[in-house]
Amino acid sequence: MSHNLADKIAEFAKLASACPEKLQEKCFELLLADYLSRVHGGREPKVAEEPGAEADKPERADKLPTHQEDIKEKDLHVKARRFLAKFVVGLDDVNEVFYREGDEFRPLYDTLGTTQISECQVRIALIQALMNAFKTGNFVFNGERVRAECDARKCYDSDHFAHYFKRNAALFAGFTKYDSKNADVTLSNQGLEKLAELIKQMK
Question: What residue spans define the domains of the chain?
């Protein structure tokens, strides 16, 4: 270590000691980092890392989730745009309930706006169909994914899960009974109407 660097470290340690105790370490680090960056032309010298140090590093910024953004019309499949127009659902309504993160659409809400288990199940199904349609244009949900989300949200009734779908059969095109082995279900026109109402209700 050069005498100059040693002198600087001693100086920074003295300056940091004037800070509140819980901030002293951070203050010292900032002073030293600033000095090193200026001395080395904006680059800090590489320091040998201890074995296993790599595992303690945070993820690189390019691996972190992208910025949350409002959904724009161009982000949506043309069939999803037609649905919004047909049922007079504005993008403002959509952005009250969902947001875009990279190529994914995610919900803004924490709760489903009801405590009734059967209604929770139906709402989850409708919303999953919508989020699928945003990307593919197909208003289709997978019943087993609905089951998983119901379970995660503590609104899963294993004894009546299939019955709740059958009871709301009018919302699903050509639906007669729920089959877990063929679990993809398409919304009927009535289901699309209920979905549009739900978006406005949850915003």
Answer: 3-57, 68-202
